[in-house]
Structure formats: structure tokens, C-alpha cells
Amino acid sequence: MAATSEYTVRLSSEERERLSTFDHALDYEFSDEELDFLETNGYLVLRGIIEPEVCDMMASEAVTQIGKTGISLSDQSTWGSIPYHGCFSIWHTPTYNQLRQNPLLYSVFAQVLKTGNLTVSVDRLNLKAPCRTAADCRKQMEANDTLELHSDLNYWHSDPNVPIYQGGLCLHDCPAGGGGFFCLPGFHRPERVRQYVADANRGRFGHPNKVIPKESKAFNPFLDKMLANDQKVEVPLNKGDFVIWNNNLPHAGGKNSLMVPPNREPNSLDNFRIHCFIMFVPLDGPCVSEKVAEFYRQYQAETRHSVFTGEPPVHFATRNRTPTSGGKRTSKAAYGEITPLGQKIFGLVPYHSPNTEE
């Protein structure tokens, strides 16, 4: 993207015409209200984009895999073993790989990234249990008041006018207080990012040598704690909702401060936060430099290998290394059917090969 060209989520007629040559790239029809919201706030909730039954299958597969770690939904005494961040390195299930080939999710990312030439992430699942006591509930609410936001990119070594997008799917209703998605609306705008960098360089958040991240560091805490505490918002989500956000946007998953429901069924997910992460990244187009595109071409091969072998990935699509990088196989290959779109997403055939879909 030329330096003089200001990014917008809206497609020009030329961009729409180019996307129309990619199967499924225009399947999702954004409303004007959705595009206005995403442009202004840097995030958008796509309500009910995934069917409830698919979410239930994904949640069931996740709970089964999590159960192999000794954590049981029916046994509250095991909930203390859930990691503080809630992330589980469960990279592959049949439904997870089905979701990675979902035409509507592909379409959403194709439009905001302005190219149909995309590959998809292999990422983790997130589970957070509700509180068992009123004291725990108060503690979690207080923690959310001062929740630390972060970015999955380095503002000092990226162009805020060339965004990629991250995303996550809510597998069970996550109301306010459930430990879901927090962010700082509007901070994605290039002028705000540039001002933040200038403030940090001047020492506003501490000595620059101590707070400014090295070029190699992609996961970074947001330094303006006062702004985050005053202006962050929590975004409630329902089953099947998908939240997408500009990666310039400081964000975080919160603490689950909801109480265990009275008379709870043993395996009920009510008041749990259960969420899976999915993002598509561009292999070409205006939202990627050639250097980053080369990384994503390698990432596509890495993703394909991970999905087809059941091995953990080496990187997230944010270019951070995964916590199990180089680890052993965690499951047998469980990708299920590879659709014609999936063959293109995983790089098995070129995107502009003859259309084999009905």
C-alpha cells in the first residue's frame, strides 16, 4: 500500500471486482452499519455467523480434549488447574479444521484484507471457569478494572496504515463479566498509534530504553495504563458470534467474574467462557509488505503440515512463536474433509485453479 493511500475497510469498485474472481470472497455481505462501526472502533462482532450446532460440536471436542489434562466440567475441584490465561494447546479437532475452511469467515477476512489469496491460522482454545465464591467474584471484577491490554505486533516496527485482522469465535454465551473480549475502541487509527509511539519515545511511560520493545518482540503490553483503565470496553458475545479486530487495537481476554449458576448441571457450560481463535492472513495485496508476505507463504506450508500431521504449529499467524514450538505431535491428523476452498487456503492448489465447487 502506498504511503499516501489511507486504508479503509470499504472496498473500492476495483477491489470488489478483483475479489469477485475468488470463490466465496464476497459471500459475507457487510451492512453499512457494520463497516461504519469497524472503521470507527477497530473491531466488529459478526452476530450468529456460525451455526449453534457447529459451536456445540466444537465445544464438545474442546471439552473432551481438555478432559485429558485432568480438568472436568463436572468436578469443580479440578477448575483450579485451568491456566490463569485460560489457553489450552489444543490445535486440532475435526470441527476446528472445518471452521478454518468456513466460507463466511474466509469472506470476511478477504474483504477487510482486500485480497482472496489468504491462508489460515492454527491457534489455541480458551476456557475460563466461573467463580465458586463471592470473594472470588469480587477479586476477578477488581482484576478486570485494571486489566492489562496488549498488542500482537510491535508498533515501532510496523505500519499502522497496513493492518491485518485477528478474530475469535464464541462457542457458548459470554455475557458481561464472563472474561471475554476487552479492547480500546478507536485506538487502531494510525494517528493514535503514531502519537503513542512518540509519547513512549519521549519517556511518558517510563525510560524509553526500558519500555520500548526490541524489534524481535511481537507480543507487547500496552503502556498507557491510565488510558486503558479509563476507556477500555468489554464486549459481550453470544454463541456463534465472531469478533474481528484490527491488530493495531490493544486488546485482552478478561477474568471470568461470573458465579457458578445455582443448580448447575454437571457438564453445563453456562457462565464458562469458551472461545477459539481463527484468523486469515494475506499472501499478497495492499495489507502486507513483501517481507511479511514471504513469512506468510512459509506459514501456509507450516499450517498445512500441522493440520495434516496433527503436530503443533511453530508460529501463530501474528508471527509470535507458539509455546509448544517444535513440540511433539499432540493428536492424530483430524482434519476431516478438505473442501475445494480448503485446498486453496492450505496451498494445495492455486486460488485461480478451475472452480470445482457446485
Describe the protein in words.
The protein has 358 residues and is an alpha+beta fold. The protein has one domain (42-345): Sandwich (Jelly Rolls). It is 31% helix and 13% strand. It has 11 helices and 13 strands. The strands form 4 sheets. Strands 1-10-6-12-4-2 form a 6-stranded antiparallel beta sheet.
Overall mean confidence score, pLDDT: 93
| Cα radius of gyration in angstroms | 20 Å
Q: What's the shape?
A: globular
Category by helix and strand content: alpha+beta
Order of helices and strands: HHEHEHHEEHEEEHHEHEEEEEHH
| Helix fraction by DSSP (H/I, runs of at least 4) | 25-40%
Distance between the termini: 35 Å
Which fold name corresponds to the CATH topology?
A: Jelly Rolls
Q: Unreliable segments (pLDDT under 50, ≥5 consecutive)?
A: none
How many domains in all? 1
Determine and state the CATH class: Mainly Beta
Percent strand equals 5-15%
| Superfamily (CATH H level) name | B-lactam Antibiotic, Isopenicillin N Synthase, Chain
